[in-house]
Structure formats: structure tokens, C-alpha cells
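Chapter summary example: a protein plus iron/sulfur cluster.
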Amino acid sequence: MGKKTLLWLQGLSCNGNSQSLLNAENPSFYELFSRVELIFHPEISYKENILQVLEKVLSDRKKVNFLVIEGSITTNKRFHRIGDYTIGELIDRLKNKVDYIIAAGNCASFGNIPVLYREHKDIRGLQFKFKERKGFLPPDFKTKSGYPVINITGCPMHPSWFTQTLIALLEGRKVILDKYNRPKEFFMYLSHDGCLRNEYFEWKVEAEEFGHKEGCLFYNLGCRAPMTHAPCNKILWNRVSSKTRAGLPCFGCTEFDFPLRENYFETKKNIGIPEDVPLGVSKRVYITITGVAKTLKNERLSKKLEETD
Ligand code: SF4
């Protein structure tokens, strides 16, 4: 039996997820595509152009197992065109031919930043428009494999979330999805899990500046990690770091509301209490716990890390 095939198409996209994919390490880009035949990728393929490839695929002379879409979906030729087709028309023609459709990144998953261009209302994600199931494909749409569009969210997605999901599907393993069709294996964790600043979070010791090792960035500096489903502090970026490890707040870029918020470097508050508190915690519990933590000071955390015993 030949290798399974993968076709990568782009809608309204900045290419960020393609760049991320090239950095894949576990498995690497090359390991992945030694197991899967890459029929076409807009930035990598050179032997055939997309129109030659589409001609074969649309006439059923070439089978596509995995259709990967990067970027938001539109049917407006003014915004996007591949030959005579928009990305929307191509998805329409391919959706019942392929075994799986994977949305690579937040634009293909939720519509993301291009949806903010409100003059054109048909821009959206594959099965979602932000949190609503009002994407390009119907809410109950499933591919031949029985899966809906599988959303690997993030702006960009982490390459391992994508490659490991693909390998799992390739090996016939069951991929359990959450309510936004994201693989739970990755998105059941919060970005907060594994952050090196958790002790500061627990004792409500706030970071004073970006880029320092000390302090938690949740209380003042906008960190969204306690409300964001993503394993960014478990499966590290480039195997070494994450935003919060580098001293910057998590922007919550794996969630549907990522581009709807303003000022990513500040925690929005009402009467001193964050508008959004960590998942699973009521505001009342939050106030009690943080009040106690603040009263019972942890002396070690008031020093620079290099100066602690
Ligand atoms: S900086 Fe963000 S991820 Fe790290 S402990 Fe604080 S809230 Fe959690």
C-alpha cells in the first residue's frame, strides 16, 4: 500500500503556521514527510504548480487523505484566489473526497484576525467563526473518517501539536477532541501548567517588568495562561522556551477570542479584581485565596532568584 497523501492549501494567511511546521522536531518535517506523501505545499513544492495538482485531485486521478488548511476562509475573489477558485470553492469541492481536514492555526480554526475586516462578512474559520459554530462548513459536517475538522489552534500552532496529531491519525489511533474540535491530548492542559513562575502565582507575587525571571505576569501584565488551553509550558517552543519563560505574558492565542481583546500587556480589572480569573475558580474564591496568599508572605520570593538560598 502506498503512502497516505497530504495536500496543504492556504486561505487568508500570513504563512505563520507553515513557518512553524518547518521547525518541527518531534517528529521533524523530514521524518513526517518520509511517512506521508506531500502532494503540494504553496511554499515548499516546486515540481508541479498548484493548478496541475488541483487538476489531478479534482478529477480523482490523485487521492488526498489529509487536507490541511492554513488561513481564514473566504469565497470573495477580491481577497483570495488559487487559479479560478477561491479557497472556499476548493474546500467545497474537496470536502467529501478527503479522509481528514485539519485546520492549521487559529485563522483556519476560528477565522481569527481576518474576520476583523468587517466589510466582508463571509470571512470565517472552517467550522467556527470565533466561538460560534458558524464556520464555512456546517456545524455537523464530518469527513469520511467520521471526524469533524480537527483544529490545531494557535497563532501560530506549535509544530509538534500538528505533527503528532497527524502521526496518531496515520497510525489509526483515536484522537479525542474538545468542544472546539481540538485534540485533548494537547489542549486539555492550560498554558499555565508547567510555567516556572507558578510559585509566584500561588503567593501572588507580581512581576514588576517584562523579561525578568521573577514574578507572575497574571496580576498586572496581562498573562492569559490560567484561562488558555495549550501545552506551551509542557511542549516547549524550539524545545527550550515559552512566552512566560522568556518573561512575556501568554496572549491566549490558542483560544477563539484571541484577536478580540485589546492591550495584551495589561490585565483588565474591575475594582482591582481581574475581569477573567483562572479557569475553575469563582471570583469569590479568587478574592479569598489571593487575599490569604498576600497576607502570608513567602520571604524567599521577595528576593532575586540568584540571591535565594
Ligand atoms: S506568568 Fe502566566 S503562566 Fe506563569 S505562573 Fe503567572 S499566570 Fe501562570
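Key point: The longest helix spans residues 283-295.
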